[in-house]
Amino acid sequence: MSALPILPAPSGVPEEHTVAAEWTAPAWEDIVREHGDRVYRLAYRLSGNTHDAEDITQETFIRVFRSLASFKPGSFEGWLHRITTNVFLDTVRRRQRIRMEALPDESDRIVGSEPTPEQAYQDANLDPDLQAALDELLPEFRAAVVLCDVEGLSYEEIGATLGVKLGTVRSRIHRGRQALRAGLERRRATPPTERQVEPRPVRARITPLKGLRAVMP
Asked: What are the residue boundaries of the RNA polymerase sigma factor 70 region 4 type domain, all occurrences included (predicted)?
């Protein structure tokens, strides 16, 4: 597995921001190198496809860069979880609004010709059936289940990430797990030749970040 490319900080903006006397933000290159793969994996598990995962990853790092000076010392990974999840949910809401306003009759998903499910497994480290069942969950349930059962966050951390109360976190995880189990049972009761698993290509390392400088202010 090749190392992540070192991306220069966007021109005209300092590479380090002092946000508090006792804490100095890491250099831009260090953020990408240390957290790029983790952000992409979370984006992939939330979105279920490489195209959206790449877009979410790029938008996440844009938001991170723009907000770095205002970050308060604490859990940097938790902050990244929150931004990535919010970008995913924003993307879903935007698409739902566009579909309702402009594409009321175009609800069918079109599957293109792409590589094998085995490659998707290698990319996301999740069983293809599990990823497919996750894709069927409502976005709010999917985010809660992924953050809890895949990323290993506590209920309190998930509540902070999603901006919801602890009871809502428990409810979403419980209902999401129920729906996930039902989806897995349906898929595993179906012969492999009849399963609809959307193939997904293995991504190049941090592909979406190559053009990051071009979109920075």
From this structure: 130-180
